[in-house]
C-alpha cells in the first residue's frame, strides 16, 4: 500500500482510542519508522537500567516494551479476523494482568528487542497484504465497533504514546 490510509471516522473505534489515533498520520509508515526509534531509545541501556520504574507501581521499561508487543499482537489478531470477514465479537484484555504474567524483568533487553523486531515484521506483513477494502471492514472488539483501518492507527498510536512516556518519564532519570 503506497498511499496513506485515511483517518478512521469516530464511529470506527471506541472514544478511548482517540488518544492513540490522534498521534498518527500514516500508520504503516509510522509502524516502520518506530522500529528504529524504539531501538535507538533503549538499545544502549543495561538490563538493570531497563528495569527502571519512573515511580512506585509503574511498569519498568522492559515491562512497557513487552506490553507494546502484547497489545500489538492482540490488535493485529483483531485486524486479521475482521479483515477476513469474521463477525464474531472479540473480547477485551486486561493489560494489568498481562504485564506481571510476562516476567519481562527476568528477560534480557536484547531478547525483548529481538522479539519486538519479529512481532513488528509480522504486523507489517499482515497490514501490507491487505486490500484497500479490507481496511473498511468493521467488527466488534471489547464491546465496541472497530475497523481494520482504526486498528492500524491504534497500533501505531499506542506505540507512539508509550515512546512519548519513555522519553518524558523514564529516560530523563537515566541521564
From TrEMBL:
Q: Which Pfam families match?
A: DinB_2
Record-annotated membrane-spanning stretches: none
Indicate the segments forming the DinB-like domain, all copies: 30-165
UniProt-recorded name of the protein: DinB family protein
Amino acid at each position: 500500500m503506497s498511499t496513506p490510509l485515511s483517518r478512521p471516522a469516530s464511529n470506527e473505534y471506541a472514544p478511548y482510542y482517540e488518544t492513540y489515533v490522534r498521534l498518527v498520520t500514516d500508520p504503516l509508515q509510522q509502524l516502520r519508522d518506530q522500529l528504529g526509534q524504539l531501538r535507538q531509545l533503549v538499545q544502549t541501556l543495561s538490563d538493570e537500567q531497563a528495569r527502571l520504574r519512573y515511580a512506585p507501581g509503574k511498569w519498568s521499561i522492559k515491562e512497557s516494551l513487552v506490553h507494546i508487543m502484547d497489545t500489538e499482537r492482540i490488535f493485529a489478531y483483531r485486524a486479521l479476523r475482521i479483515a477476513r470477514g469474521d463477525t464474531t465479537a472479540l473480547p477485551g484484555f486486561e493489560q494489568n494482568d498481562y504485564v506481571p504474567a510476562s516476567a519481562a524483568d527476568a528477560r534480557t533487553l536484547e531478547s525483548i528487542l529481538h522479539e519486538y523486531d519479529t512481532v513488528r515484521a509480522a504486523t507489517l506483513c499482515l497490514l501490507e497484504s491487505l486490500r484497500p477494502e479490507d481496511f473498511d471492514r468493521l467488527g466488534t472488539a471489547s464491546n465496541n465497533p472497530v475497523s481494520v483501518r482504526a486498528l492500524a492507527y491504534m497500533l501505531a498510536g499506542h506505540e507512539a504514546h508509550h515512546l512519548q512516556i519513555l522519553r518524558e518519564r523514564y529516560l530523563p532519570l537515566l541521564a
